[in-house]
Every structure is written in C-alpha cells, then in structure tokens.
Amino acid sequence: MTRWTLRSRLIVLLVTSSVIVIVVTTTLSVLFVGSYMRDQIDNRLVTTAGRIEAGLIGLHGLQIDAATTESMAKPENAAVVIENDGRVAMAVNTDRETAVALQGAALNDGRPHEVPDRPGMLAIRLDIGPAQASFVDTDGTIVQADAMIIGFDTRVAAAAQRRLVLIAVAGVAGALAAITAATVLIVRRSLRPLNGMTEQAHAFAAGDRTVRLPVPTDDPDMQRLALTVNEAFDVQQQAEARLRAFVADASHELRTPLTTATGWIELYLQGGLTDEDRRDQAMQRAMTQLGRMRVLIDELALLARLDRARPLDLDPVDLAVLATEVVEDARVINPDRTFSLHAAGPATLLGDAPKLQQVLQNLVGNAVQHTPPGSPVEVTVRPAPTDAGEAGSRVHTLLVTDHGPGIPVEDRAHVFTRFWRGDASRTRHTGGAGLGLAIVSSIVAAHGGTSEVISQVGYGTTIRVRLPAKVP
C-alpha cells in the first residue's frame, strides 16, 4: 500500500476543503437565487392580479376589448377571460390550447400555481364576477365574465437560472483549478526547508555528526522544528562522545591492573620466580591488582544499575546513625586523622540504607584520599527543620568537609563526572578510578536529592548533599 507524503496529504486536504466550501456555497447561492426569482414571479402575478381587479371595478359598465385587456395584463403576461358558463371568452398574449389549459387548471385559492401540461407556466385566477365587467370576445359578441386568469411563462427565467448555474459551475471549476495550483505552489514552498532538513538528517544518520539543520528565519514553525532537531543532534553527539570516553576510560582503567597481574603470572610460569618469598610477593601483587579490577567492575555495575533507574530498597533510615558508623570506621582505618561528626539530631528519611552508607563512605574516603596526611575531615548532618512545611518540601543536609588544597573553579563542574581526575598528578595508583563522586551523585539523584561542591583553593572542599525528608 502506497503511503502518501506530507505534501500530498496537505494538498489533498486543502483542495478538498476548498471544494467542499465552494461547492456548498455555490449550491446554496443558486438555490437562493432560484427561490428568490420564483418569489418575485409569484409576487408580480399577485400584484398584477390585484391591479387588474381594481381596474375592472373602475371600468364598471364599460365594454372591455382585447386591446384594453392586454394593456391591463401587460405584454409579458397571458390573460384568459372566462364566461359565466365556464367557456373561454377571450385569450390575450397566448394561444387557444394554452388558454384552455389555463381555464382547466385548479386555481381557486387566489395564489399562483403551475399549470398542468404547460411546463414553466404559472397562473393565478381572479374572481371578477362582482365587478360585472363586460368583454367583447373575438367574434364581437359582448359577454359577461365570471373570472380572469393571468399566466406567466417562467421558461425565460428558468433559462436565465440555468445560464447562471452554468456560469457558476464554470466559475467554480476555474476557482478550484486556481486554488489547486496555488495550494501546490504554497505547500511546496512552505515545505521546501524540509527537503534540506531531510538531507542533513540523512547525513547525520550516515555518521557525519558535524551537520546541523539550516534554521529558517522567515517561518517560526520551521525555525522551532530546526532548533529542536539540532538540539537533539547535539544531545546525541554529546551522548556518543560520553560513551566513547566512558569506554576508553573503562578499558584503560581495567587494562592497567590486568596487565600488571598478567605480567606477574607470566613471570611465574616462565620460571622467573624461584625464590619462595619473591613468589609470594608476586602473588600478593597480582591479587591486589585483581582486587582493584573487582572494585572497578563493581562500581561500573552499580552505575549501570542506577542508570537503568532500578527500584531502590526503601526503608526508614536515620542519616545521623549511618554517618556515625562511617566516621567510626574511618577512625579505625586512619588513626592518624581527626574525624569529627556534628549531628543535631535524628535525620530520618525513606531510603536505601546500603547505598546511602556507600555515599558517606565515598565522600569520607574521597576527602582522605585527596588531602595531606593528618588533615582533619568533618562530617555534618543537619536534619530538616520540623516547621519547614510539608514533608515533600523538607530536606536533610549532609556536609563532608576537608581542609585540603581545594578545587579550582574550572574543575568544579566536572567533579561528579565519571573517570574525571582534577589533578593530573593523581594517578590511578593514588587517586582511584574517578568513579567515587559519580556514584555519590547517581545514588543521591536516585533518592530525589542533589549534590554540589563548594570549594576554595587553599582552604578546602565541602561536598553538600540534600535528601528529601520523606517518611513512610
């Protein structure tokens, strides 16, 4: 089945709409003109009849001949005088057969009617008996008339109406032809920018990510369409760039520990580790690298699950309790550090406890990892004010502050980007894979919260997390 193009559908729709409007309008106009002409003829017959009736009363006692009758009836009307006995006494402006047909027609209500067997003939009957009019018939005999019939041949008016219909049909045909041509031209011109857009879109789909649709300035609708599609192209290009960067970074991060572990194993298989202590050291190094790979894979898997927006295991969680546990663990792992916790009270919310705990662990671990040894770390939990309105608008705030070198302004926008490292001196051996804060941002977003960085070079950095204070 052939599918119609947008251009074809628009042309057919506009032309069809025009045809319907013009045909209906013309038909109604022709019907109105026909009805108007019929009403005019009826009114003229009624007026003529009234005028003749009044004239006969004024001619009481006179003998009326054919010339006088024709003068009263007017040349365009037929006049038939009927005697008292019902015979035709006089016929003016018509033939004998038509006069007989007029005489036999049922015209007793004083209104114009069509005459049987005489197409196009309208007639009206006058009762002129009370006027006691005397007529001189064609034989010169004086007769007393009982009635007069006035007839009008409407065939001339009907022919004029038919001509009007033909003219209207010809006009409609011409108008439709002109409308169709104009519609085709207008639609083609209006949709012409789409041709260029289609070509550019095909080029983009073929792999040329630099092309963009031309943006018309004279058509707001086309302009809006082009801008929207260009925005979609930009988003697609950025997504592909992020994907390529992600794949490159992930493969790079995995390649280093894999290469290291493989090197130690190959050295062992080649007999290069004959000393038992050295062999144990090599296996320990290989296990360390494999452990780093496992952590990286787990982090990537967690980000993938968060990207798919899989449901969280939500339960009531006290953020202050989680912070206390994480700080206590950090004190054991880093005895040379000072960790302080400030919690003004319970901060209960509906959340996934293990993932929120990972948020705290990543933030504290990030602060430890990127600050000088012995530098203090502060964890602050600010419960949502109880008078802050509805529960949906209340938020708990978590702050993790370090006193390290700080983050330059140009780097702050990338802090939560995957595999990003601000300091080039921080390698994967000292700075991690660059996924910790990206995981924080994804987990917080999954809980409907926000993450932001506040930093001043030379004074330290604070990561602020806001989480909705939702409760069951």
* Strand content bin: 15-25%
Rg to the nearest angstrom?
A: 52 Å
Order of helices and strands: HEHEEHEEEEHHHEHEEHEEHHEE
Overall pLDDT confidence: 81
Shape: rod-shaped
Structural commentary:
This protein has three domains: 7-159; 220-306, Orthogonal Bundle (Helix Hairpins); 312-468, Heat Shock Protein 90, CATH 3.30.565. The chain starts with 5 loop residues before the first helix and ends with a strand. Strands 1, 2, 3, 4, 5, 6 and 7 form a seven-stranded mixed beta sheet that branches. It has a five-stranded mixed beta sheet with strand order 9-11-12-14-13. The chain is 53% helix and 17% strand. Helix 1 (6-58) packs antiparallel against helix 4 and helix 8 (353-369) packs antiparallel against helix 10. It is an alpha+beta fold. The model is unreliable at 424-431 (pLDDT under 50). The protein has helices spanning 6-58, 66-73, 96-104, 155-205, 220-269, 276-307, 319-333, 353-369, 409-412, 436-446, and strands spanning 63-64, 77-83, 88-92, 113-114, 121-127, 134-136, 142-153, 315-318, 339-343, 348-351, 377-382, 395-402, 450-456, 460-468. It has ten helices and 14 strands. Its main location: membrane. It is an enzyme of class 2 (transferase). Residues 188-241 form the HAMP domain. This is histidine kinase.
